[in-house]
Amino acid sequence: MVARILDAGRQVLAEYGYEGASTGRIATAADISPGSLYQYFPNKDAIVLSVLDRFSNSLVSRVTARMTDEFEQPAPVIVHATLETLLDGLDVERPLLRAAVEDGPRLDGGRTLRAFEERIGELVHAYLTTQRPALRAGLPLDAAVWTLVRTVEHVSVRYLLDEPPIPRERFLAELTHLSLSYLRAGD
Q1: How far lies 166's CA from each of 152, 170, 182, in Å?
Q2: What is the band of 165 on the pLDDT scale with cuts at 50, 70, 90?
Q3: In 10 A of CB 84, how many CB atoms?
Q4: Measured between alpha carbons, how far is 111 from 14 in angstroms, rounded to an integer?
């Protein structure tokens, strides 16, 4: 029943956004009564946060799997593949993405977003640790990971929400170049 409610919550968020979502709409989409919905969730915000948490966990799993699959590849290949997977994962219905980046932090003080960034940061840190000789001299790894994760995240979200006239492959190539240039000497 919880999964059914969360699936309905995602559908309603994707269709109406946070402001247009309501427990009534979610109950209708889940084909249950509002009273039944309240047995599992106290309010709309609890459903929205659970939906966004599922979204975040799914995205981290996808990025982790892709990085693991490409781990032995040269840096440009793994960076491009990872960024592509992140962009694909973020490229959901625009109202859902907007709810994740604008409403989620307001609802939980940014806890879900920070957890996502930390988990992705751990992956990036692990990878960069194996690449230490190729990184620019004196690169402060913790600061670089923090900066890189948030820069890539923000630019990717803005690309998807703003829909600039930049082809997706061109955007990925530029973001890959930006990331590699930041990390490596002479690239």
Answers
A1: 16, 7, 22
A2: very high
A3: 16
A4: 21
pLDDT digits (tens, 9 = 90+) for 92-140: 888 888 888 888 888 888 888 889 899 999 999 999 998 888 898 899 9
Q: Is 142 exposed, middle or buried (0-12, 13-18, 19+ CB in 10 A)?
A: exposed
Q: Kindly report the CATH class assigned to 51-183.
A: mainly alpha
CA 20 to CA 16: how far, in whole Å? 5
**In terms of Cα–Cα distance, which of 43, 47, 57, 49 is closest to 105?**
49
Give the separation between CA 73 and CA 166, rounded to whole angstroms: 27
Q: What residues does each domain of the chain span? A: 51-183
- Identity at 55, one-letter amino acid code: F
Give residue 75's identity as a one-letter amino acid code.
Answer: A
Q: What is the DSSP string of the chain?
A: -HHHHHHHHHHHHHHHHHHH--HHHHHHHHTS-HHHHHTT-SSHHHHHHHHHHHHHHHHHHHHHHHHHHHTTS-HHHHHHHHHHHHHHHH-S-HHHHHIIIIIHHHHHTTHHHHHHHHHHHHHHHHHHHHTGGGBPTT--HHHHHHHHHHHHHHHHHHHHHH--S--HHHHHHHHHHHHHHHHBTT-
Query: Which tokens is 142 given?
Result: 């913790």
